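User: quick one, fold this
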Amino acid sequence: MNKFFVGIIAITFVLGFIIINLFANIRIKSPKFNFEDLVYDSKLYLSNIKDKTVEYFVDELRLKIIRQLDRLVVVEHTYKTTDSLNKIAKMYGTDVNSIRSTNYIEAVGLLYQGKRLIIHNKKGILYKLSKGESLNTVATKFKKNKEELLLVNNKPGNYEFQVGEYIFIPNAYIRFKDFMLPMFNTKITSGFGQRIHPIFGMLKFHEGIDLKQQYGAPVRAACDGKVIFSGWAEGYGKLVILKHYNGYTSYYGHLSKTRVKTGTYVVKGQIIGNVGNTGWTTGPHLHFEVRKNGIPIDPRKVLF
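Assistant:
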């Protein structure tokens, strides 16, 4: 490493130290220094930073500024497998419910490496206006005052939001259900209750619902829980059973493959198996049951 490069690093450290000390002792609203400009200051993003300490130092300074700004700041964060929503929330000064609501994260198990998340430094939801909606309908939906929303979004009193535009709604969240459908792009082909059994041709009580999907499609945990069975069961074929809170259990039958072991814990949305036609079936589908204290209930009561 040549002396010139060493000198640059040393200067960067000194300047960074001075800025952090200034930042720690000056209020953000001070007219003497606009810390908000630092968030997007290209000088903070040095190209080809080889020293990881310097890179970490610069990133921490930027995050500290974002966390303490009074004004709403919206940034993009690329999710990594080493991340957690709690960790990301602390980084930007928000909370997990805000991240889940803005990005419509129904389940943590649906996150993946490289997923781009919209993050803001205030608690609430960044809501995208859909066709037929207006500021008035959104204010009513989230039980907020129209004037308050204009103020927090830094808009004049006569401003009209357009379709596709985002409105930040403070302290408002989407309330996700505890259970989710265990597959995407599916539909119910056989409901809960009495039916003529497709194989035996006799009236029999169907203790779950059948969900249509192609062979091999991923099957996901409908709720956080513990795997209490993963193997073969008569009628069900390859089966996974999860134990949840408050006496709930869920069953995933006719799988072509199970992907979890008994005794392990899974999160909502995590892949636990694949669609198959093992057991008593007439073709590939998922048999999905929900039980409360051992008694089968209609899964639609907890899904929809």
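User: anything notable?
Assistant: Residues 3-8, 17-36, 38-47 have pLDDT under 50 and may be disordered.
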